[in-house]
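Input record (Table S2, row 561):
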Amino acid sequence: MLIIVKNLSKVMLSALLFGSTLASCHQSSGIDHNRGPETRGEGVYSDKSLRAYHPPIEVTLVREIGDGLEDILKALPDETLENNRWSQLYEQVLGIQIKYKWAVRSEQYHKKLDIMLASGDIPDIVKVNAQQLRQLSHAGLIQDLTQAYEEYASALTRQVHRQEGSGTLESGMIGDKLMGIPETDSSIEKAMYLWIRTDWLDQLGLQPPKTMDDVLEISKAFTQKDPDGNGQQDTYGIAATQYLWDPVMGFTGFMAGYGAYPNIWLEDESGKLVYGGIQPEVKQALKALQEMYRNHEIDSEFIFKNGSKAKQLIADGKIGMAYGEQWGAFLFQSSRSGDPDAEWQAFPIVTDPGIAPKVPLKFTTSSFYAVRKDFAHPEAILKMFNLHLEKNWGKTAEYGTYYNDSSPVWGLSPVTPFPADKNLEAYRQIAEARRQGTTSQLQGESAFILDRIDRYLDKKEDGESGWGWEKIYGPSGAMSILDQYEDNHQLLFDAFAGAPTETMIEKQTILDNLQHDYFVNIILGQPFDQFDRFVEEWYRLGGADITAEVNQWHVDKKGRP
Ligand SMILES: [Ca+2]
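Output record (calcium ion complex):
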């Protein structure tokens, strides 16, 4: 049996790396189902991907302590950074003892990490970005993980790594070697929705938008027709922040309404990859934003406000629409403190009449786990990945213990992979259970979410927080729209899904700043031909080289077996 599994794994690795669909056939988790899911400790799992070390081994890492982790530790007085439910689980099941060489607050973390990487004295496993991965690899400080992945990545880990295409795993490769295990991220979570104050729509007798012209009409009405009924013209059509592309209150979804995708790479008709930010559609979108700004439909001070400042206008009930990701619901909820009748709903983004808009999804994999050159157990990082996924989403998951207890305890683990579509999957389970009348049988994440929603709908004392969950997972919530986006093939994945190219590492920040400054100035009133100047400058300052590199990557990718 083991031999078969191993051979299959080899097939799967190549399938995974080179984009074949073979891998999706194999779903077995390799779990010994004769044991109950509650069983803990060594020997629970028969599969090699989760087998314990005898005797136990020590694995060193370093750790960043952000606000989230600090809050979790505060909420759990019996657990510490080094001794908690996750460290105990890794030790009991895998024989892996986690030791941190150091752990510091986020403010100091990156500097300390840079100094450590430069010194060459790295821990057994270290999380790095693409540029650091390349540096460590060139310096010969880390080892090739191709063989370890082939032998030890569980079926679930492989499935999660290839969920959004072969790009995720490929981005951890240097040449033909897997030098870092990509930390998983989710592109589809970045899908845009148009969030609207539906109580304002009702107040003014307006319908939800079907086209961009409708969006512009609603924005005007929300600005000029006193939707809050206080007799003053003191409201804005649409939210904005100084960053233009914030995940909530940014313009990514607005631009998509004009067929403009300024932050991703697109494949043109000839099969070449082109940068979305320099396409003529962007100019049209900027034109529309300039007019909205001139008509006071956008806060005149948006350029001085980051997300935390800009959201105050939402809390104050001054904003009627905002583009944003699903979690925006929790931000819009703030408007209900001052006005309990404030109602928001997510709507699908729109474009020209009769056309289903494309929803752009930027490639997001940016962190990798690298393993020190002389570390004797390169597979340990994979076993940890395997166990983290298994205990949260596998057949032996204990969601209430290892993911969300009273706090988001998944954050205690030094590695936190997750399935890219876990939230969409939870929505689908809830929707299906509602149809079948079997909601009481839900488990794990979907049961947790439904409980929050029910507390809100039943008007329980602590129920108000369920409002946001309902806006995301309810029958007409954001996830129901994502489900439609996917069914209608509206998701537009970044055509470049690789590690940053040499010139990107050097010039991307400069180009991003250039784009930002030109776009903001046009919105604030500069002539549109400034856009053409931007395109010229973009090419000259590194864009031309990057375009060549990205197309080389594209050609190489096609050339692979
Ligand atoms: Ca008003």
